[in-house]
Amino acid sequence: MSLNLTGVTLTYPDGDSRLTALDRVTLDVPLGSLTAVIGPSGSGKSSLLAVAATLITPDAGVVTIDGITTTGMTRAELTDLRRHKIGIVFQQPSLLPSLTAVEQLQVMAQIDGRSPAKARGRAMELLDDVGLTAEAGRRPHQLSGGQRQRVNIARALMNDPTVLLVDEPTSALDHDRGAAIIGLITRLTHRQATATVLVTHDRAHLTSVDQVAEVHDGHLRLPLKPTHSNG
């Protein structure tokens, strides 16, 4: 397994007590597979993603990324792990307005010390993978919402992560563009052999994912069958 959460519990302060966001959650995501995590607002989906991304340390349980157990790692070690092992697609693309699509990707590799030539070559490969070769020289204001989200996804893959974490990628898109983005993430997961977790409230586009889990009041139910339903 490339991403493994075992017995993960996470709580937050809530007045004089604590609110349980995740309650003994266990999840295995193999390389080359896509797990969709669904559930209502406030159910614990975002908390699960943050723990998997090592952005939050759980109260209990173990998080393992590509065979590396994160327990006891320093902040610097976790930052390095995220840089090399984890790609994160945030809900809002947050692209830099002054950079072109290809430069959005290049800067990620250059931060990691790759040469500009190698960075550009890899960036162009990924833009081709997401169908944006012709838009490589365009800036965010020249791209549609769906195109900006594609750049966001390509950027997350720039450093060849083994784990890809995707937060509500279709929330600002219409039905057809949302379906296209989910299809793209599924194809890239299989092609890039990442262990992918997709957090979403939308059940309509999940027929192609490998497994579906539901979070409710901090508890994880797995597996569920992919469904066409919007319910």
TrEMBL record:
Pfam families referenced in this protein's UniProt entry, alphabetically: ABC_tran
Any one GO CC term of the record: plasma membrane
Keywords carried by this UniProt record: ATP-binding, Nucleotide-binding, Transport
Gene Ontology MF annotations: ATP binding; ATP hydrolysis activity; transmembrane transporter activity
Keyword Transport: yes
Domain (ABC transporter): residue spans on this chain: 3-231
Cited PROSITE patterns: ABC_TRANSPORTER_1 (PS00211), ABC_TRANSPORTER_2 (PS50893)
InterPro entries attached to this UniProt entry: AAA+_ATPase, ABC_transporter-like_ATP-bd, ABC_transporter-like_CS, ABC_transpr_LolD-like, MacB-like_ATP-bd, P-loop_NTPase
Protein name: Putative ABC transport system ATP-binding protein
